Amino acid sequence: MASLSFEHCFIKGISTVVPGQTELNANLEGFTEEEKRAIIQTTGIEKRRIAPAHITSSDLGVYAAKQLMHTIGWEKSEIEILVFVTQTPDYLIPANSMHIQYRLGLSENTLCLDINQGCAAFVYGLAVMYGMMTSGKLRKGILITSDTITHTIHPHDKSLKPIFADAGSAIAVEYNQSMHAPSHFELKVDGSRFDKIILRERGFRNLKNKNENIQSLDQKEITSCLYMNGQDIFHFGLREIAPQVQELMNKHAIHFDSIDYWIFHQANKLLNDTIAKKLQIPERKLLYSIQEYGNTSCATIPITLCHHYQKINGKKSKTIVSGFGVGLSWGTAYLELNNITCQPVITYEE
Amino acid sequence: MSTEGEFITLIQQQFPEDIRYGITFESKIREIKGWSSLQALIITVAIDEKYGVTLSDDDIRKATTIHDLYLTIRNKMK
Fold first, then answer.
1. Does residue A323 lie in a domain region?
2. What is the mean pLDDT of chain A?
3. How confident is the model at residue A207, as a pLDDT?
4. How many CB atoms lie within 10 A of CB B6?
5. At A17, which CATH number?
6. Is A229 on the interface with B (CB under 8 A)?
7. Closest chain B residue to A34 measured between Cα atoms?
8. Residue A332 has pLDDT above 50, yes or no
9. Based on the structure, what is the number of domains in chain A?
10. Domain range for residue A17?
11. CB-CB: which of B39, B54, B60 is closest to A239?
């Protein structure tokens, strides 16, 4: 397991933006009342924000980043690194971070990098940011975790449609040698299960367009749309997350009682509740946003922080965050949040 | 592991009242009224919490009857 620890990197602020269009799971078309009730009860998802086709992950990310920089008073010229984590980039080539550098008006000296990650995006992205900023002594950076994952979902996919939603987050990260800000990360991957969440086409392994009939879902997997084996992912989460959290806590002698907030990837409330029970986490410390925003892929952890901004903004807390899913990959981090600027979730305006 | 009786009760409790009493060891899982992928998750969690055994997707896929599920869990606990 990759274990990383840092001393002088910390989050300065977080901003999250969601599209304006809301879909209610209670109004899902093609589902019986019983099915809708079961979905809401099991997943915990009541509402989802859906981006129109012309709004991309970079649009949401730029919007969030501009709001954030304005709020915390950072100058564009100060940003030395920009990491964009997404599974739904605007283009296959070039990477989102490249054109975002221009759209945000950042310096040509900015280190720009994209990471293809989903459910564990926040943890992986932050670990990479902290590592690069520490080694390069880069003082200010922006991490963007943004996806329009609903654009990959077949319109008739009854498994994925009620779950996924769109959002983009921007996280301001600072490196300051005079500040003591311990953080710890545990990161794992099991690539043998890479095909449990997969979009087979649009990459270069399957170049030939199969001209699938997208009006039919007779096939188990529509290769031009996102496929997820939800059962397997659920079992994976149930099996792997609690031990990883336990390992991080043991390794760094962190007491469970000292943790103020726990945020798990917002994919399924039943799953998170069960993980929390295994770890004996008090309900009041377990933060959720899934009811309001669904599974926003890359953005679930920062959107949860922003959803609970009253607990986070300007306050001091010790927080465990854990993301798990595509890859399959999973990552858990211990973060000390100290006087960060955490804005309420904002709605994207064109 | 608890008795077969306790196991069947645990499974029954995961279904609505109008369905649960018709469920027996011989019930074919996928033919139980109200069975769905979400129901499978609920049962997975109940088994995990009761027996500390996390079933895989394959475990559920391979089980035809409730009894098959019981045997799978018993084997995993050995």
1. yes
2. 93
3. 72
4. 10
5. 3.40.47.10
6. yes
7. B34
8. yes
9. 1
10. 1-206+217-350
11. B54
For residue A294, the model assigns a pLDDT of 96
DSSP A164: B
pLDDT of residue A218: 47
pLDDT above 60: residue A161: yes
Task: Give me the residue from B38, B39, B44 closest to A235, CB to CB.
Answer: B44
pLDDT above 80: residue A210:
no
Token digits of residue A139 = 């003082």
A31 touches chain B (CB under 8 A): no
**Residue A316 C-alpha from the chain's centroid:** 22
Interface contact flag, A270 B42, Cβ < 8 Å: yes
Superfamily of domain B4-77: ACP-like (1.10.1200.10)
| Chain A environment of B54 (Cβ under 8 Å) | 235, 238-239
User: Do B36 and A39 make contact, defined as CB atoms within 8 angstroms?
Assistant: no
Name the minimum distance, in Å, from the CA of B36 to any CA of chain A.
Answer: 9
> Residue A289 region, left (φ>0) first, then alpha (ψ -120 to 50), else beta?
alpha
What are the tokens at A251? 């390794």
Going by C-beta distance under 8 Å and a sequence separation of 6 or more, which residues neighbour residue A14?
A68, A169, A170, A171, A172, A302, A305, A306, A312, A340, A341, A342, A343
Which pLDDT belongs to residue A217? 52
**Residue ranges per domain, chain B?**
4-77
Q: Is the ipTM of this complex over 0.90?
A: no
The pLDDT tens digits for A136-155 are 999 999 999 999 999 999 88
For A211-270, the pLDDT digits (tens) are 554 444 544 567 788 888 888 899 899 999 999 999 999 999 999 999 999 999 999 999
Rounded Cα–Cα distance for residues B3 and A152 (Å)? 46
Sheet holding A316-325: strands in order across?
A2-6, A183-189, A329-338, A316-325, A261-264
Strands (E), A127-257: 140-147, 167-175, 183-189, 197-198, 227-228
Q: What are phi and psi of A341, to 5 degrees?
A: -90, 110
Give the pLDDT score at A17. 98
